Known about the structure:
The structure holds two protein chains of two kinds.
Chain A: E1 3-11, H1 15-24, E2 31-36, E3 39-47, E4 50-55, E5 67-73, H2 76-85, E6 94-95, E7 101-106, E8 112-117
Parallel strand pairs in A: 1-4, 5-8
Antiparallel strand pairs in A: 1-5, 2-3, 3-4, 6-7, 7-8
Chain B: E1 3-10, H1 14-23, H2 25-28, E2 44-47, E3 54-58, E4 66-76, E5 80-84, E6 90-98, E7 101-109, H3 116-141
Antiparallel strand pairs in B: 1-7, 2-3, 3-4, 4-5, 5-6, 6-7
Amino acid sequence: MTFLKISPYLYYEDAGAALDWLARVLGFGATRRMVVDGKVEEAEIEVGPATVHLTGRAPGPDDGPGALLIVGVDDVDKQYERVRSAGVEADPPKDEAYGPRTFHVTDPWGYKWYFWQGEAIYPE
Amino acid sequence: MRSVSVSVDVEVAPGAAFEVFTAEIDQWYVIDKHTMPDVTRTVAIRFEPHVGGRLLDVHDARTGEGREMGRVTAWEPGRRLIFVDGRGTEVEVTFAAHGAGTRVTLEHRGLDRVPPAEREQVGRYGWRLLLDWYRNYLRSFR
């Protein structure tokens, strides 16, 4: 099992403004945004080889302290076994309608680590 | 949901970005059952490059004829294009100079005319993926 990448996923009240700020002030790279009925729902900005995701919604009660850490892997089931064998509870990996096979585990301080195998696609 | 827009930054000038979006659409657009109205017959996808022209699911490689996916209502190379689909929803693609490249924005309007389940698919998955294909193609081949 190989770790492929990590993508921070950050919550902002105004993701459009945050995206513009990150590009303008910090000088990060190319952006991508999706706007629904005038509001930025989700966006991305490239930082070197990494991509930071922004969402325009507040964290919900199950979203931890406000950051979701998405880790790309080539074998999500192996990663799940590793977590379980360390004595930590997690729901088993499942194939998501939007593409990847995933599971998540919450660390003792509340940050949620979300392991992905595969990329997002059209849902069936 | 009434409208969705997606934008990406690409590293070519607006004229080239428009050209690749339109003339080279068959190179980057991913043809499958989700993206074409009649995929079992599809041999290509192409724009007729003028107002009144069609976005076509091409079924006959020889004649270039096929099924209409949209009708072009604005065609301004290097700036923008608009097409309207059979349900009356409208897609506008704009190409604006941004830094050394172009910000390409695709806005799909009139989604309140589309059934809710399909609306989610079109809005939240469709265009978002489409502009990724376009950007990845530009990065790989231009």
